[in-house]
Amino acid sequence: MEIRQLKYFIGVAEELHFGNAAKKLFVSQSALSQQIQLLENELGADLFFRNKRNHQHKVELTEAGQALLADAKNIILLCQRSVSTAQRIGNQLNILKLGFPRLVDPLLVTKLIQLFGLHYPNIVLKIIELPSIHCVEDELMGEIIDMGIVLSSSHLPDLNTITLFNSPSNILLSSNHPLSFASAITVDQLEGEQWIELKRQVNPIYDKVEDFFKGVGLKRQIVQEVNSYEWIQHLVALGQGIGIVPAHLNLISSTKTISLPLLSEYKSSLPELDICLALATYKKFDQRKIAKVLAHYQAGE
Questions:
Q1: DSSP sequence for 195-262
Q2: Whole-angstrom Cα distance, residue 177 to residue 264?
Q3: Fold annotation for 93-164+275-298
């Protein structure tokens, strides 16, 4: 049984006339009749009543023909959907959507574009800049983007993540802060400061930071807890306090804040934060290809 034969059968069943069906299907009537006959022979049943005395050459569906008609339409519809799905997936496989938060260093993104272009020239990496890290996470979970640059993977258990590198933590100050002209800051210089901090539920290193400052004997006064590094930057720029941010965030565009390393005389230091590439798991990507590109990235190529 061929798909073509089912299409011919549906055509005759809808017209109940071989001549009209042949015109509609753009085939000769003899060819149409031959294919219907082959289909009936294969099924071992007549699909149409052919009344030679009917001067209009009309035909009628037999009981077997009526039973086949509904199934034949479903088969044709399923085939059309399968072709459309295969074409859509085939077209999408060559385009990967990479989302990244506005505060991520552009050099990181451009490096990934270069490496994908070098090793997989048939893959187009479409970049999408998003307002915040949370927007990247939401679009990954909503299957809108294929890959996203995020900070840490501990609160994204449903996604595959690959660590790009570990980012040191810096102290963020207002450009009007007395320490803003220093090249680095020591722990004792932070005594009495007010802090803007990420909320624990969105900060994977919250407890580690607290343990660090307890270990060095500094009791922090946290005056604001916010949901994003963007808000830390805004409030620090207003002089509302100081904050902790990953050193690799792109804060150089702001002239109102400055990010400085913290020098520690102790064995411990401020915790680092993983900068990760998260992959939307619903996509059937070849993970080995992405791992190869990231291996080149981590090797500094």
A1: EEEE-GGG-TTHHHHHHHHHHTT---EEEEEES-HHHHHHHHHTTS-EEEEETTB--TT-SSEEEEEE
A2: 20
A3: D-Maltodextrin-Binding Protein; domain 2 (3.40.190)
Give the residue from 168, 231, 223, 181 showing the smallest Cα distance to 202: 231
Give the Cα separation of 142 and 135 in Å (integer): 10
Helical axes 3-15 vs 18-25, angle rounded to 10°: 130
Q: Report pLDDT digits (tens) over 230-246.
A: 889 999 999 999 999 98
Q: What angle do CA 203, 205, 211 make, to 5 degrees?
A: 130
Distance CA 127, CA 17 (A): 56
CATH of domain 169-271: 3.40.190.10
Q: What are phi and psi of 89, to 5 degrees?
A: -65, -40
Helix, strand, or coil (residue 58): strand
Tell me the pLDDT band of 194, cut-offs 50, 70 and 90. very high
β-strands 95-101, 147-151 pairing: parallel
pLDDT bin (cut points 50, 70, 90) of residue 282 is: very low
> What are the residues whose beta carbons fall under 8 Å from the beta carbon of 2, sequence distance 6 or more?
none
Residue (of 262, 299, 284, 296) closest to 117 by Cα position: 296
Task: Please indicate whether the domains covering 3-91 and 169-271 agree at the CATH topology level.
Answer: no
Q: What percent of the chain has pLDDT over 70?
A: 87
Using a cut of 0.90, tell me whether the model's pTM lies above it: no
Note the pLDDT of residue 280: 65
Question: What residue ranges do the domains of the chain occupy?
Answer: 3-91, 93-164+275-298, 169-271
Cα-only R_g, the chain: 33
